[in-house]
Amino acid sequence: MAFYPDERLGLFIDGANFYSALRALDVEVDYSKLLSEFRKRGRLVRANYYTALVEDQDFSPLKKMVDWLDYNGFTIITKSAKEYTDAVTGRKRIKGDMDVNIAVDALQAAEWLDHIILFSGDGDFCPLIKAIQSKGVRVSVVSTTLSNPPVASDELRRVADSFIELNDLAPLLARPAQDDNDSAQ
């Protein structure tokens, strides 16, 4: 993966997709380390984190994380998730797709960034990547192919200027593992 010290970088994190990739690899990311790592690779101009939130939940660990990210260098883009009952299984499901928000913001940012790093494996982003590249901006995708099934689509990996395997990046971004003695104290 090629980065240049003077290039303007923007991170666009599809929260749900990134979470799925992290969970598939059994990695817990330290978002401070993530920012620090990309600040070393260029001039980090923007770090956007996209997620849908369930409004009527009294407690959500996601809200706590989103608040932390908001106070620590990330721009948070949220919308209300919709709860529905799956007609086939009868189970309650939550829908909160952020793809359009990511696409609009990334296309606008392509006017003033040199390199966009998309944290998602969603193949629906292929047209977005091509549109950004047509403006002369490089696009790297961070996801994983090591899960079963792979989180990153083949087409997305092919269209990106570079694919960064999350498992290779994990040692630089992961929280240290707590042993049982540490967590008991």
| Alpha-beta content class | alpha/beta
CATH fold type:
Rossmann fold
Q: Which shape, going by the Cα principal axes?
A: globular
Structure annotation, total helices: 8
Average pLDDT for all residues: 89
CATH superfamily: 5'-nuclease
- What is the count of β-strands? 8
Q: What's the CATH C level?
A: Alpha Beta
Please give a structural write-up.
By secondary structure, the protein is of the alpha/beta class. It has a single domain, classed as 3-Layer(aba) Sandwich (Rossmann fold), CATH 3.40.50. 38% of the residues lie in helices and 25% in strands. It has helices spanning 15-25, 31-41, 61-71, 99-109, 126-133, 154-159, 166-173, 180-184, and strands spanning 8-14, 43-53, 75-80, 82-85, 92-95, 115-119, 138-143, 162-165. The strands form two sheets. The protein has a six-stranded parallel beta sheet, sandwiched between helices. Strands 4-5 form a two-stranded antiparallel sheet. The chain is globular, with a radius of gyration of 17 Å. The model is unreliable at 180-185 (pLDDT under 50).
Give descriptors for this structure:
single chain, 8 strands, Rossmann fold, alpha/beta, two-stranded antiparallel ribbon, 8 helices, disordered C terminus, 185 residues
Please give a quick description of this structure.
This protein is an alpha/beta fold. It contains eight helices and eight strands; from the N terminus they run E-H-H-E-H-E-E-E-H-E-H-E-H-E-H-H.
Summarize the SSE layout with pairings.
Blueprint lengths: L7 E7 H11 L5 H11 L1 E11 L7 H11 L3 E6 L1 E4 L6 E4 L3 H11 L5 E5 L6 H8 L4 E6 L10 H6 L2 E4 H8 L6 H5 L1
